[in-house]
Amino acid sequence: MKRIRFTEEQIVGVLREAEAGAKTSDLARKHGVSEATLYNWKAKYGGLEVSEAKRLRALEDENGRLKRLLADAMLDNAGLKDLLSKKW
C-alpha cells in the first residue's frame, strides 16, 4: 500500500473537521488514515494554524539534519582519537 504524505494544510483541515464535531472513525475512513494517526496529529498539531504547522515541520527537519551532522562529526572525532592513540 502506497504511503501518502499529507501537507500541513491537509492535516490542519482534517483537525478542524474533528473540532467541528465529526466522528474520528468517519474522518479516518474518509481521508484514508488510521484513527491512531488522527490522534497523533491532534497531539502534535492540535490548536496550530497552518503557518505554525509549516514552521514546526521545518524546524523538525532542520533539527534532524543538525543531529546527523553532529553524529558524523562525533564519529570522525572518535576515529581520529583512536588513530592518534595507536600511533603513540
Characterization of the model:
This protein is mainly α. The chain has helices at 8-19, 24-31, 35-45, 50-87. The longest helix is centred in the last third of the chain and has 38 residues, at 50-87. The model has no long low-confidence stretch (mean pLDDT 90).
- Please report the total strand number as a whole number: 0
Shape: elongated
Helix content: over 70%
The helix/strand series, from N terminus to C terminus, equals HHHH
| Main beta sheet strand tally, sense and closure | none
**Mean of pLDDT:** 90
Low-pLDDT residue intervals, each spanning 5 or more residues: none
- Helix tally equals 4
Distance between the termini: 56 Å
| Percentage of residues in strands | under 5%
Give a quick rundown of the structure:
The protein is mostly helical and 88 residues long. The chain is built from 4 helices and no strands.
Q: Which features would summarize this protein structure in a list?
A:
mainly alpha, 88 residues, 4 helices, elongated
Q: How do the strands and helices of this protein lay out in sequence?
A:
Blueprint: H1 8-19, H2 24-31, H3 35-45, H4 50-87
Helix pairs in contact: 1-3
